[in-house]
Amino acid sequence: MKKKRGKYFGETLKCRFKVFRLILFFVASTFYASQLQGQQVTPKLTLEFRQASFSEVVESIRQQIHYEFVFNSGDVQSLNRITLSLKDASLQKILDVLLKDSNLEYVIEQKTVVIKKRTVAPTEAPKSILLKGIVTDHKHHPLPGVTLRIEGTNLGTSTDAKGEFVLNITDDMKSLIVSFIGMKSQHITLEKGKNFYRIMLEEDTQEMDEVVVTGYQVVDRRKNTSAITSVRAEDIMRPGVTSIDQMLEGQIPDLISMTNSGEIGVAPKLRIRGTSTLIGNREPLWVIDGIVQQDPVNISPEELNNPDYINRIGNAISGLNPQDIDRIDVLKDASATALYGTKAANGVIVITTKRGHVGKPQVSYNMTGTFKFRPRYSDRHIDVMTSKERVQFSRDLLNNQYIFPGNTSLVGYEYLYAQLYANQLTYDEFVKQVSDMEALNTDWFDALGDDVFSSQHTLSLTGGSDLIRYYASIGYTDDNDVIKSNRNDRYTAKLNLDIHFSDKFSASLSFDGNKSIQKYYQSDLAPINYAYNTSRAIPFRNEDGTLHFYQKPNGGTHYRFNILHELNNSGCTQNGSGLSFQANLLYNPLKWLRINGIFAYSVSNTEVDSYWGAETFHVAGLRRGEFGGSIDAENCELPAGGELQQQTSRNENYTARLQIDANKYFGTDEQHNINASLGLEASSSKYVGTDITNRGYYPDRGLQFATFQQGVYPKFDAWQLANRPMLTDNLTNLLAAYASVSYSYQNWITLNANARFDGSNRFGSQGNEKLLPVWSASLSYNPLEQFHATGFFDFLQLKYSYGYQGNMLEGQSPELIIKKLPLDDYFHELVSEVSVYPNPELKWERTASMNAGIELSMLERRVMISSDFYYKKTKDAFMDKEISGVNGTNAHMVNGGEILNRGFNVSLTVSPIRSKAFRWSLSTSVSKTFNRIETKPSTDQYKVDNFLNGTVIAKGRPVNTFFSYRFKGLSPEDGGPLFYDYKENPERLYGKSQHDVYTTVLEASGSREPKLSGGINNTFTYKNFRLNMTLAYSLGAKTRLFKLFDNQDFNPERNVNRAFLNRWQRAGDERYTDIPAILNGGVNTYDVHWSNGSYFSGLIPVLATNAWDMYNYSNLRVVSANYLKCTTMSLTYSFPDELISKWKLQRLELSVSTNNPFIVCSSKLKGQTPTQGGFTTVQLSERPTFSFGLYVSF
Amino acid sequence: MMLGMICSTCFACSNFLTEYSHDQAYIQSYNDLDEMIIGSGYMKCYGAGLNYGYTKDKVYYPYVHFMADETEVKTSGTYSYSNDDVPKILFGYYTWQREVERDHESTVQWVENQDWNKLYNHINICNLILSQIDDQAAETATDRQNVNRIKGEAHFLRGSYYFILANLYGKPYSSASAKTDLAVPIKLTEYKEDKVYTRATVEEVYQQTLEDLLKAEACLKDIPRKSVTRAGHTAACLMLSRVYLYMQNYEESVKWARACLAEQDALTNLNGFADTAFVTQSSPELIFTMGGNFIFANLGKGPGTFTVSEDLVQCYSSSDLRKTAFIRANDNGIYKYVKLTTTSNVRDVSDNFALRTAEAYLNLAEAGACLGGEYMTEAQNAYNTLRQYRIDGYTYESLTDEALIKAVRQERRRELCFEGHRWFDLRRYMVNDACREEKTLSNTFVLYAQFPPDYEYEIVTLRRYTLPPHDGAWTLPIPAVELESNYGMPDNPRTERKYK
C-alpha cells in the first residue's frame, strides 16, 4: 500500500510528504477518540468569497479565529475557485461546505485544523485495473466460454478459446464469480495487487443439468419439459468393465439392467420404464452424437425378449470405448422420445462423446488392470455333493435297487460296481478304487476356470485452436474370462474434429473404428453348467497328468469324453469390426437461425466361426465311431474331419438429416421466446448375412475340407443335400419429417410440442392406416423464476408431458405376400411359397403415456431432489396368438393386449459435508415399476409350459409372471411329492376355460423382472483422496432354484444337490423334510400325472407330465431374487499439483477398485445368485474383480 | 427455400421408399399363383431314403404303413445297434396307444399335430389360390386355360386333403352313421380365423371332397396334363372313383373309374420286367404322385425294426411276379421293399399319395362286384386284366359276387401295398354293407439294451398289442393342441392299450 501511495504522489512531493506524514500520524492518533465523542464547540465566522482559492479562504479563517491549519498543498489543489457566503457559521459548518464533493476530511483539535485525505472511505477515485487470467478444468484443460462476473455488478466477460480472459475492473471490486456449464461456480476474492489469476473449476455432475442433450436438440434445463436423466460418464465409470451398458446398473432412475451371465462380452438387458410391448423389441435405442446406432447383427425380438437369452453378439455400442464418452442422457418419456418416432418406444440412451478443448496438445493415458476370480466350491453359492457324499449317494441308490436309466455314462461308483459284478475287478481292487474315488473331489471349477488378469488401455490426445479443436484416442482392451478359452480383445480408435470457420459457419467431423476378436465355447458344452452338475467323483486328469476320458452315451453307444478336451478341440471365434464417419455442418445465417446438416455413415462386419474338431465327442457321435477307429458307414453323418459353421453379417447404414432451428426472443423485455426445430431425415440400413455349415473340416491341415465319394455314407449325402448356404438381405429405408416447437415466457413457463411422421420401404408396410403419427405435448414451470425468489430453494421445476405413439410390426400385411424361391428340381419349375399370410384386421399398437415430474435443489445445491411419476397405457398391443392349425398355421398376430405401466422414481443427492479438505456426497435413487396386463387372452392359447416358464399373458399380472404348482408335502407312505392339484375333486375344474383351470391349479409366483430397483452412490473426497462406493439393489423379482430332478434319473455322471442328503428315507421323515425320496420308475402315480388319463380327455386339460417336473416347478422352489450388491468400490489418489508440475505432468492419478465384491440376497438361494435362474442351464454368476488404475496426462 | 429443399428431397426419395425385398412379392398374375401351388399347395417331396429319426418333419402320415398288417417287428436274430428307432418313434401309432406321440416310456417322440397342420396348411394355400385366381387377368385363350388349370389343381388338392383328413381323424364312411360321426373342421376361407372350430360330420367332409373333386374335374377337362407331378383330369377321375368307392356309391365309382381308364389304361407287364423299381415317374401306369418316399429305408433292417410282414409275404402266390418286384428277401431272410426307388435321395414316386391305373382297375372291379348284375362282367374283366400283367402264366378267373369282392380286396392288398391304402381299406371293409370283413390286428414292440460287462444287446422289453375290430383306435385321436385351442371339441375316444 505504501508503494502504491508513493507512486501516486509523484516524485516531486516525495520529501515533503515524508515530513507531513509524521505530523499527520500524530494528530490522527490522538484526536480520533474525541471526534467520536462529539464535535467541540468552535467560534462563529462569517465568510464571503467568490472564485477564491483554498489558500485565500484558509487565510481568511485564520485571521478571524487564529486556528492553525495543516494540509498538503497537493491535496487541496482541486479546491480552487471557491464561491461561498456564510454568516455566523461554525468552523465545522464551513469546513463541511468547503470540503464537500472532495476526497478530503478534516480534524479539529484545540486550535489546529488538519485537512487530509479521507481514510475511512476511499479518499481516491477507484482506479482501473486490467485483470487477466486463465480458467481450466481440473485436468488443466483450458475452458473456453466461461462466464466471469464481478459480484454485485453487471460487469463481466467470458474466456476465449484458450480459456484466457481480460477484464477491465476498478480496484474497489472485491470478488469475481466464475461459472460454467457442468462446473461448480467459484467465488474468487480479488486481492489488491494481484492481477493475474489461474482459476481451476471443478466439475459438478449436478450442474451438468444446465442443459440436456436429446440428440436432436440441446435444451436449457430451465426450459426442459421432459423426463431426462443426465450423467457424466466419468461418474459411473466402473474400472475393468468394457462396455458402457454394463455400467448403467443402479445409476439411472427408471432404468433396469439385468445381467443373466457374468461372462465377458455379454450384453445386459435394459428396460426403461417397464415393458410396453409383448412382441416387439423391448431394448432401448442407442444414439451416439445424434445418430441412431444399429445393432451389428439383426437379432430377432423374440430372442432378445427371452429372459434366458445370452447376448454374446453384442449391441449397438459394443464397439465404443467407454473412455471416449463424455456424457449420457437417458430419455424416458414420450416428450423426450417423440422426435425419434416409433423405434424409440422403449426409451433412448443418448451418448455424447468427448470433444477437443482449445489449448496446447494434451496427452492422456489411462490404464486399468483387473484380476477376476473364478467360482469355487467354497463359495457359499455352490451346494453340490463332495465325491464322498456322491459315492455314498450311489451306494444308497444301489442298495435301494434303484433302476438306472438306459444309456448311462460308464463312470463312477456304479461302473466300478458293474465291473466287480462282472468279475473284472477283484473285491480288493474295488475297495481300493472306491476309496480313491471318495477322496477324489475333482475341482471342476479349477479344471475349467482360471483366475485371470485383464487390462484396458486408452491413449488420447486433445487440444486445438480457435479454428480447430480435436480429440483423438486409441484404446485396447484385453479381456480374459474366468472360463478357460473365453477371451475378448478389442481395439478402438476415435477422432473428433470441430472446425470453427467463422461465426456463421462451423463443422464437426468424426471418425470411429473398432475391431474385436471374441472367443468362446460352443454353447452345447456350457462349461459352467458342466462344472455345477458333474460328479466330483469323476477324475479330470489321470495320475500321469494326461486328461482322463470316460465313456459317455451318444445315440445308443458310448464315446470317450473329457470336457477340456472337448473345449480345446472346438470353439467359436467372433470377429467384429466397425467403421463410421460423421459430418455435421452448421450454418447460422442469422443470430436466431441455424441450419444444421448431418451425414453419418457406418459399416460393421461380424463373422462368427464355430467349429467342432474331429477329435471331439460331438463329432464322434456324428461320425459314429471313435476318432481313428472304425466307422459305421451306414449311419455316418461326418466321415472325416470336423464341422465348421460360418456366419457373417454386414450392416451398412447411413443417416442424412437437415434441421432448421430458430430460437428467437421478442417482446419489450425479450420475455417471449420461441424455439422451433424442423427437420427431415432419411436413414437406410442394410443387413447382408450368410450362414454356411461345412463338414470334413481340417483346421490344422491348411483349413481345408475333405471330400467324400457319394453313396458310401448315405446319411452324410442326405445331410449334404439338405445343407444349403443361407443368405439374407434386408434393407430398411426410413424417411421422416419432424417438428418441435417450444414457447417460453421468461424462463418460467415453457410449452412444448413435438411430432414426427415416418415412411418406410418395409415390405407389406402399406398397412390399413398408412400414416403413423407420433406426437407429444408438454410443459414446465419454474416458480422461482416467476417470483424471483431466492434463498432456501435454488431451483424448482414442475414438468408435465403427454404423448402418443403408434407401432407396427414387421412381417405383417393386410395382403398376401409370397416368397420367391429358386427352380425346384422336382417340379422343374420356379416355385414360391407364402411368406406373409394376409392379416387385414391388424391395427397399430398404441401407447399413450403421461409423465409428471418435479425437480428441486436447495441450500446452495446441497440437497437436490427429483421425482417423476409416469403412467403408460398400451392398447391393441400385439399378441402372438396360437390359433387352431385348421387355419394352416398356428401363428397369428392379434391386437389383443392392453398393458399398463406406471411407476415413479425419486432421486436424491445430498452433500452433507462440503469443506475444502473433506467432502462427502451421496446420491441415491429408487424406481418403482408397476406393470400389468389388463386383458385376458381371448382364447386359450397358453399351455401349462407357458405358465411355468413365464411366457404366459395372464390378466392382472405383470409381464413375465411365472406360475408354480402348489406343493402339499411328501407322501408318508413312500416319500413322493404331493401337490394341491384337484386330484380328489377334478369335477370342480370341469367346464372352466383352460386359462381358468391353470390359474386355479397353479399359483402365481411372481415376475422375473424387479418391481423396485435403485442405487446408492457415495463419494468421499479428502484432500487428494477420493473414495467411491456404489450399491445397486433390486426388489420384487422372483426366481426358481436350480432343478433338483431330471425326471427321476440319477446318472452316475451327474452330481447331485446336497439337499438330497436330507431326503425322505422312512415314514415320518415327511415331518422334517420336503426333499422327496428316490423312487424307482414304474410308480405310476408319480411318473404320469393323473390328468393324462383318457377319462379326463376333453374335460380338463393336461395339468402336468409327472410329479418330478411338478416338484421342480413347485412353489417350494420359488425364492425371492431380491438383492443388494456392491457394484463398485474404488479409492483414487490424485497427486498434488505442486508435485506433478515439477514432473511436467498435468494430472496423475492412481486408483484401486473392486467390482461385485459382495451381494446380499436370500439365504434360500443356496446354490445360486439371484441373477441365475433355474429355468435353463446354469450360467456364470457375476464375478468379483479387483483392479488398479493409472491415469496420467501431460 | 426450405420448402423447396424439402420438396426436392422428397422427389429424390420417391424411389427411396419403394417397398424393397430381395425375395418377397405381392401376387401380380396367375403365374404367381401357379408358382405358389407347386411351392406350397402340393405335398412336399424330399429325397428318398432316410429314416424317420432324420426326417420326422418331412414325411406325411408315415404311420399308415405300420398301423395295418403290412409290417411287423422282428424279434429274432442278432440285434446290432441302429439309430433307426422307427418302432420307438412311432410306438404310439403302430401299437394303437391312446397318446400316439409318446413312446413306451411316455416320452414324446412325434409331433402329434404335424400332419394335421401340414394338410390344413396345404388346404389354406388352396383357399388363398381359389380366392384370388378369378381376379387375375386372363386375356388370351392360353391364359384362360392356365387359370382354369390352376383352379382345377387347387380344387383337386383341397378335395384330396379333406379326404385324407376325414380318413385319418374320422370314422370310416358308413351309410348308417356318416351323418353323425365326426370328422374334421371344414375351412374354406382364405384368411385366418381366430375362432373355436367344430368338427364337421364325416358326411359333410365327404361332400366337400366330392364338391371339390367335381369342380376340379370340370376345370381340368380337356387341359393337357403338365406332368405326373401335377394333377390332371385323369387324376381327378380316379380320385372321384376312390371317394365314391369309400362311400359305397358304386355306380359313381364305376363311372369315374371308367372315365379314368378311358384316358389312361396302360399297365406295366411284369413278365420280363427287369427294372429295379416297379413304379417310377416314367411308368406308363402312373397318373399322379405327390410327396416323398421314405418307407424303403425303414423296412428290413433287422431285429427290433420293421420288416415286411409275414402275413403280406404269404399273400403272394409263387407265380406272382410282384413277390420279387415289390419286395425282396435279403441275406437274413428279412423282406425288404423295392417297389419304389431304393436309391437314396432320389425324388421319385410317393409312398403316400400316388395314383396309378392299377387302382382304377381295382376300383372298377370292386365297385362292379358290389353292384353285381350287369356290372359283374366288367368287374371280372378289370380284375383279370390287372392280374394278367402281374402273374406269370396267368389264367382267367371267373369269380362272382362275394368271392369276387374278397378276391379283388386281396388283389388290392397285393397290388397297392405300401402306397398308403391298406389301413384305410381295412377300415372301410369293417363297415362295408355289401361284404363286411373284420380283422384283428396285432403288433409287437421290442427293446434291446446293452449290458455290462460285455455290453451285448439283449431283449429287455417285449410287448404284444392287439387291435380288435371297431376299436376306437381305428381312428386317430384329434391332436391335443387342437382340442386345447378349440376348447370343447370332442376327441376320438381311445382306451389305454394293454399288452401281453
Question: Could you describe the 3D structure shown?
Answer:
The complex is a heterodimer of chains A (1194) and B (500). With 1194 residues, chain A is mainly beta. Among the domains of chain A are: 2-117, Phage tail protein beta-alpha-beta fold; 128-204, Carboxypeptidase-like, regulatory domain (Immunoglobulin-like, Sandwich), CATH 2.60.40; 207-357, Beta Complex (Ferric Hydroxamate Uptake Protein, Chain A, domain 1), CATH 2.170.130.10. Chain A is built from 22 helices and 55 strands. Chain A has a 22-stranded antiparallel beta barrel. Chain A has a five-stranded mixed β-sheet with strand order 15-20-21-18-19. Chain A has a four-stranded antiparallel β-sheet with strand order 8-7-10-11, with no helix packed on it. In chain A, helix 10 packs antiparallel against helix 11 (427-438). The two termini of chain A are 39 Å apart. The relative contact order of chain A is 0.09. The model of chain A is unreliable at 1-39 (pLDDT under 50). Chain B is mainly α. Chain B has a single domain, classed as Alpha Horseshoe (Serine Threonine Protein Phosphatase 5, Tetratricopeptide repeat), CATH 1.25.40. Chain B has helices at 2-12, 30-41, 52-55, 64-67, 86-89, 91-94, 114-133, 141-169, 202-220, 233-246, 250-263, 310-315, 322-325, 357-371, 376-388, 401-415, 422-430, 480-485, and strands at 24-26, 71-73, 286-290, 306-308, 327-329, 335-337, 353-356, 441-451, 456-467. Chain B has a two-stranded antiparallel sheet. A two-stranded antiparallel sheet of chain B has the order 3-7. In chain B, a hairpin with a 5-residue loop joins strand 5 and strand 6. Chain B starts with a helix and ends in a 15-residue tail after the last helix. Mean pLDDT of chain B is 87; it is low at 1-8. At the A-B interface, helix 10, strand 32, helix 16, strand 34 and strand 38 of A face helix 1, strand 1, helix 2, helix 7 and helix 18 of B. Strand 38 of chain A pairs antiparallel with strand 1 (24-26) of chain B, so a sheet runs across the interface.
